Amino acid sequence: MDKITEIINELEKNQNPKNLEGMQRYGIRFEDAYGVNIPILRNLAKKYRHDHELALMLWKTRIHEAMIMAFLIDDPAKVTKKQMQNWVKDFKSWDICDGCCSNLFDKTPWAYEYALKWTGNKSEFIKRAGFVMAAVLSVHDLKAEDDKFLRFLPIIERESTDERNFVKKAVNWALRQIGKRNTFLYKEAIKTAKRIKAIDSKSAKWIATDALREFETETTKKIVALREKRLKR
Fold first, then answer.
1. 5: which DSSP letter?
2. What percentage of the chain carries pLDDT values higher than 90?
3. Section 153-180 average pLDDT
4. What distance in Å separates the CA atoms of residue 192 and residue 54, rounded to the nearest whole number?
């Protein structure tokens, strides 16, 4: 039995029609899906870890869970620019977008290049991908200099007027995560949020108000301090 058939059989065995209704309620879009729980997919993915060719084949099936398996098992060292350009065009749901960016794309050599590029794209989910990348890189990339994240702040300000739900939430996410990276970026993110709040836009005001509210909490201040210590190690 080939690997694709083996995986599809496992997905069919663990399918849950009730989950499909829940996925739709949470705004998860799909053409074909089995409703398999994420923990099951992660456990199944362990068997095929770093199988790049299998990941490419799984992605082509367009089955929702198979696409999730694809970014869970792929080898970041073998991901090409062409693959990233092709896959991002297939993002039609926030969970595929966020999962692929935070489990695979952020580990490639071109993560920052495409994060910056995608934030200016007109497509809702490609633009979201750019800001998701900015958010997860600020948490995952412990060696990056502050300048890499400072570059995103004027972009966040520029795109804060985009009223599309999946875009504005990602813009907000990027702003909050960059601000929680260290004390310097915390202060710069607050300055950015205050400028955004002054923009005559419902989306901008929501992004800024939500971010500023989080920045002011004691929990966030503790997170900033802890992350700063981790970055200095």
1. H
2. 88
3. 98
4. 43
* % of the chain with per-residue pLDDT over 70: 98
pLDDT, one tens digit per residue, over 110-137 is 999 999 999 999 999 999 999 999 999 9
Query: Residue 233: pLDDT above 80?
Result: no
**pLDDT surpassing 70 at residue 1:** no
Q: In this structure, are 106 and 34 located in the same domain?
A: no
Instruction: Compute and round to an integer the Cα radius of gyration of the chain.
Output: 19
Residue 92 lies inside a defined structural domain of this protein: no
Residue 15 half-sphere exposure, CB side, CA atoms within 13 Å? 14
Q: Is residue 212 part of a domain?
A: yes
Q: The domain that contains 161 carries what CATH number?
A: 1.25.10
Residues 120, 167: Cα–Cα separation, whole Å: 11
**Domain count of the fold of the chain:** 2
Buried b (16+ CB within 10 A) or exposed e, 39-73: eebeebbeebeebbebbbbbbebebbbbbbbbbbb
Residue 135 sits in the same domain as residue 64: no
Average pLDDT, the chain: 94
Of 23, 45, 78, the last residue of a domain is 78
Give Cα 124 distance to the centre of its chain: 13
Residue 80's CB is within 10 A of a number of other CB atoms, namely: 11
Q: Residue 209 belongs to what domain range?
A: 97-233
- The whole-model pTM stands at 0.94
Q: Residue holding tokens 């948490």?
A: 139
